[in-house]
Every structure is written in structure tokens, then in C-alpha cells.
């Protein structure tokens, strides 16, 4: 005859016997999940750091030089250096300043973001002014210089006046990739894969939401597209 008390005792025995294994498995799953999350964060941070707006500018202008230095820079290395100085070096100074002065470091990322806009716009403005002192700036230079300046001004207006945090990273990766496909040809279309990759990194790091990323990307996409169609 079945003994209900014996069944309960057996059930209790197995529960306590296997409970440590259950706890271990749950702990192991949580540990794996935490490890994957940390790794995901590290990868996202690396992508976000590699593809800041100034570094994308360095990438694009360098591709232009090696693709066709004569067509894109009139074969003049000074034109290439001029581009790097105004569109990479000056904007990068924002990060150096933000992390060098205690009063800026205390405020955190918000002041770094504001300085990035200021240094970026100053660099782009001076870069466009420098075109006036060149004997023969190329269409590629004029198009890209203008695209950077106008996109940055619109983004600054959206962020400062409209109080909408449109993504600078999304803006800084999308427009230049549109431009390089006009300048170097459709063979550069594979670079478009960087756009969702950079957006993903910003989402993982929780620096922006989807709307802010799309707003930043759309700004530089349409500005660059219009300017490049007009010039080319």
C-alpha cells in the first residue's frame, strides 16, 4: 500500500540533496549572463571610441588620399594635412580639454559632449575658411567640408534650441560614408555596415535611444546627399 508520508519524506530528501546543484546552476547561469553583458559593454565601448566623429573624419580623408590623391586633393599633401588638422586634430582637442581640467572632469560626460560640439564647429568653420586661401580646392574637399559644417550646425541647433539629444556619433558616421561613396565610388558601399554597428554600440552603452540615433543619422544623410548631388 502506498505510504503518502514516505513519498513526502523522499521528495524532501531529493529536494535538499539536489538543492546545492540547483543553486550552483542558477549561479553559473547568472555568472555567464553577467560575463556576456560585460563583454558586450566592452565591445560597444571599443566601437564607440574607435568611431568618434574626429576618427571617422581621419578615416574618410585618408581613404580619399589613397584612393585618388590627385583627384581628391590635387596631389597636394598639404591639402590632406589641412583636412586632418581642422576635422580631426582640433575636434579631438575637446576630449583632451575635458579630461585635463578638474572642473570639466567633475561635471562628466555632459561637458565633454558640449566641448565636442564647440571644438567641432570651430574646426569645421576654420576648415571651410581655409578653402578660400587655397589655389584650387577640389570638389571632394568642398563637398565634405561643407557637409561637416552644415550638419554640425543643424545638430547643434537641434540639441541646444530644440532640446533634443540627437546623436553626434550617428551624424558623424552617416554623412561621411554617404560622401565617400560619391567621391570614391560605389565600391565603398561596404562602409555603410559601420552605421548600424556604431548605432548598436550607442544603444548598448545607453548613450542614446533609437529616435536620437535616427535623428542624428538623418541629419547628416540628407545634408550630405543634397550637397554632393549639387557639387557632383
TrEMBL record:
Residues spanning the membrane: 43-65, 77-97, 117-134, 140-158, 170-193, 213-231
Keyword flag Transmembrane helix: yes
UniProt keyword terms in alphabetical order: Membrane, Transmembrane, Transmembrane helix
Protein name: Phosphoesterase PA-phosphatase related
Organism of this sequence: Caldicellulosiruptor bescii (Anaerocellum thermophilum)
